[in-house]
Specification:
This protein is α/β, with parallel strands linked by helices. It folds into 2 domains: 241 residues, P-loop containing nucleotide triphosphate hydrolases (Rossmann fold, 3-Layer(aba) Sandwich), CATH 3.40.50.300; 200 residues, Cobalamin biosynthesis CobH/CbiC, precorrin-8X methylmutase (Rossmann fold, 3-Layer(aba) Sandwich). The chain has 22 helices and 18 strands. Strand 16, helix 20 and strand 17 form a beta-alpha-beta unit. About 10% of the residues have low confidence.
């Protein structure tokens, strides 16, 4: 039988569908046979199968994330609003007619065997089943006879990850209140919590996460960034709006796994990592993991970068597991040599995120008399941003112009904010700063590519990641690659 994990939410719209799809893709990419499951989905967004059966579009898209054809087993009960208090009920893809809400409340108790049969079939055919809940498990008026949240979790003995929506506000109250309304056995089923739709500086959020863990006795498994989607059914919205689902999976991968490589999900045997079956794990001594990783990168890298760029490309791939960077990392003429000389002469590294600051190998940097700074959390930067109507990232670059000793070589490593990259190019044009190198790797959608184009036209020495991809991890990896080349 398959391992199982369930995603529940503090309320509707928290992103359960998208997170379930992301987990499905992560497990699939790791080589497991995986399937989504949602016992009951109330949605007007349907997917019609070739034989005419119907299921929720969310589970159809989650099946796509698994590399599978949609199957009614993944959504044995579909409820479509039929006007007033009516519901069009589909069981295993077939219509059972229109029922009133009261009639369906009685009917659903008889559907538990159908739900269990569908789940058992998927569990027999797959290594992992990722279950999506519905609404909130704390709807105390609906708990009796529940077939989609805690009732299902208990039926199939699934651990639960609880997701809260910080964008709506009150996420700590959402999570605390939801857990308070659960019975003790149900609270024990919840192994960790996720915070979704975060926008801002993670360092500012950190004290709240620590306090939350202390209050509820559950680990915060991750904080996921806000993704633009306005529909009740996030997967349907993604499809209709032609969002790049591959990028969505990467963002979820980063939020759930890269930010928590040894976090609570790995430590907790009942959490996500505890669900991974044996047989695919490569036994290797911890000191050999990096060497083995680079062996794999070397064997799978189809196109060979030029010699001066190869260590940078491989280090970025090592940090991201994304081989597309072999095609998108570019440099100006002589930029690598210039960067190495700057580091040899005690370069100052200035980053736009505390995450990049934390990721840079300071021990190596200090050996050459260098230093690294990030001004993003400084109070005067926040004040300057508010007064000037600019982003803190841009204000941090302006602070560098009068704080950093420009007599020393300065390398700017931008891994998040396009406004930081654009502003530092402006400061250079005003002769207020003289970067020895600019690492241009902001990530996202708004003005990201435009800021990189500004850098390309600035005449400054650069190492750049073309397109929308980048990130703090990438910026830090490029710096570390340069340090290791010395």
């Amino acid at each position: 039988m398959a391992k199982v994990i369930m995603i529940q939410g503090t309320m509707s719209h928290v992103g359960k569908s998208l997170i379930t799809a992301g987990l499905c893709r992560i497990f699939k990419q790791d080589g497991y046979k995986v399937a989504p499951f949602k016992a009951q989905n109330m949605s007007g967004n349907e997917h019609i199968l070739p034989e005419g059966k119907k299921m929720s579009l969310s589970q159809a898209k989650q099946a796509e994330a698994c590399g599978k054809m949609p199957n009614p087993l993944m959504n044995p009960i579909l409820l479509k609003p039929a006007g007033g208090m009516g519901l069009h009920v589909y069981v295993n893809g077939e219509s059972k007619g229109i029922k009133t809400a009261a009639d369906y409340a009685v009917m659903k108790k008889t559907l538990i065997p159908e739900i269990k049969r569908a789940y058992d079939r998927l569990a027999e055919e797959n290594d992992i089943v990722v279950i999506e809940g519905a609404g909130s498990p704390a709807e105390i008026n609906l708990n009796e006879g529940d077939i989609v949240n805690m009732g299902l979790a208990k039926l199939v003995r699934s651990p639960v990850i609880l997701v809260g929506d910080i964008d709506m506000g009150g996420v700590f109250a959402q999570i605390t209140g939801t857990l308070d309304l659960l019975e003790k056995r149900e609270r024990d089923i919840v192994k960790a919590v996720l915070i979704n739709k975060f926008r801002g500086d993670i360092d500012i959020l950190q004290p709240g996460l620590v306090s939350l863990e202390g209050r509820v006795g559950k680990k915060v498994a991750g904080v996921l960034p806000y993704l633009e989607s306005r529909d009740y059914d996030a997967i349907a919205a993604a499809m209709r709006e032609n969002l790049n689902m591959g990028l969505i999976y990467e963002i979820l991968d980063a939020g759930l796994l890269e930010q928590n490589p040894s976090g609570p999900l790995e430590q907790n045997p009942s959490g996500i990592w505890g669900q991974i079956p044996s047989g695919m794990w490569e036994e290797i001594h911890p000191t050999e993991i990096e060497r083995r990783s680079f062996e794999i990168i070397e064997s799978e890298l189809s196109d060979r970068p030029r010699p001066d760029l190869a260590p940078i490309v491989k280090r970025v791939i090592h940090a991201t597991a994304d081989f597309s960077f072999a095609e998108t990392i570019k440099t100006s003429d002589g930029a690598v040599y210039t960067a190495l000389e700057a580091i040899r002469h005690g370069a100052i590294i200035l980053t736009d995120t505390n995450m990049a600051l934390a990721g840079i190998n300071k021990e190596l940097l200090y050996q050459y008399g260098g230093d690294v700074f990030c001004f993003m959390s400084d109070a005067d930067v926040a004040e300057r941003a508010n007064k000037s109507g600019i982003t803190r990232a841009a204000a941090a670059m302006e602070k560098s112009a009068y704080v950093i000793d420009m007599e020393r070589p300065v390398i700017y490593a931008i891994g998040n904010a396009p406004t930081a990259l654009a502003r530092l190019c402006g400061l250079a044009a005003e002769n207020k700063i003289k970067p020895a190198l600019v690492i241009g790797a902001p990530v996202g959608f708004v003005n990201v590519e435009a800021s990189k184009e500004i850098l390309l036209r600035s005449g400054l020495p650069y190492i750049i990641t073309e397109g929308r991809k980048g990130g703090s991890t990438v910026a830090a990896a490029i710096v570390n690659a340069l340090l290791l080349m010395l």
